[in-house]
Amino acid sequence: xxxxxxxxxxxxxxxxxxxHYVNHYDIQVELVDHLASAIEEQWEQNPDLSFHxxxxxxFKKFGIYGFSKIKVQKEKELRRxxxxxLWHFILEYYRWPKVIxxxxxxxxxxxxxxxVDQTIWIVLSYAALVFFGVLGYHFFVFKxxxxxxxxxxxxxxxxxFEKVNSANVIASQLPNISYQAFNMMETxxxxxxxxxxxxxxxxxxxxxxxxxxxxxxxxxxxxxFLEQYAEFAL
Amino acid sequence: MQxxxxxxxSLSTIVLSLLKEQGKMYGYQITREVEKIxxxxxxxxxxxxxxxxxxxxxxxxxxxxxxxxxxxxxxxYFITEKGKKETANLLNEMKSxxxxxxxxxxxxxx
Lengths: 234, 110
What we know:
The complex is a heterodimer.
Chain A: H1 7-19, H2 25-45, H3 51-60, H4 68-92, H5 99-115, H6 119-145, H7 165-185, H8 193-229
Chain B: H1 2-7, H2 11-22, E1 25-26, H3 27-37, H4 46-58, E2 62-69, E3 72-79, H5 81-105
Antiparallel strand pairs in B: 1-3, 2-3
Helix pairs in contact in B: 2-5
């Protein structure tokens, strides 16, 4: 019977990954299996080869960058994956049939701009709504998406939740930026139809973006995590 | 080494068509299988394979499945429907590239 990697040696391989700055379980698990398979294959030819010698030979094949290139690329690909998902989510609202909702909201906002004399009040109310909405989200909603992972394990995938922080930046800056913009224009009312249309479009698009970033993407991350690493969720 | 450089840009196509043919596979198995099929002519380095697999997974061309093997967890990759369509496109591109190269290398064939 061929020699196989023991549990103790598997632990040593996980430690080997940590020693090479790979701390996320979702990358470690693949590298550990790769190294273990490579060592076991060497044992088929040379059963007396020591575990450490086998590990040294296997790690050599990862080249001069070792694990770092794999780690950096994986981070980049995960970021891209969820950005792509968010982008598709937004585009859905500008395609049939959801575009009807988007169109009605944009038109409704545009009509509101016609009815209310001072544009600034609609814009500032919207900015305040975004601000308090995002604040409320963090207090009451985010915990629904947040994953409880068993202590001692970190996952690159769960770090994608940090994406919601970019919504915080938008929410915290929006009231100030809107106020300053009207101050610079030295007016409280915008009459130009095209500017009002563009403003309505932008405000609805931003609402869709925030909704996607705060609800849709975290839900997807949670789903993907539970599909692959359910045993590590509490 | 020079030989491998020519294959560099085709790694995604190679991995996708291999998974399309063979069903689910894990990282180490892919490196060994590519070597076997090409009689050792092409050695896929680990530093190139995993970023490619992660890219294809992120694009939704590959999907993954975790399984316990020899007391450790193994990550298997398999091709998705979207991946199958993309493989067909990439293979067509590769075929037209090869025929163009043949014309360039051997103009008499044209």
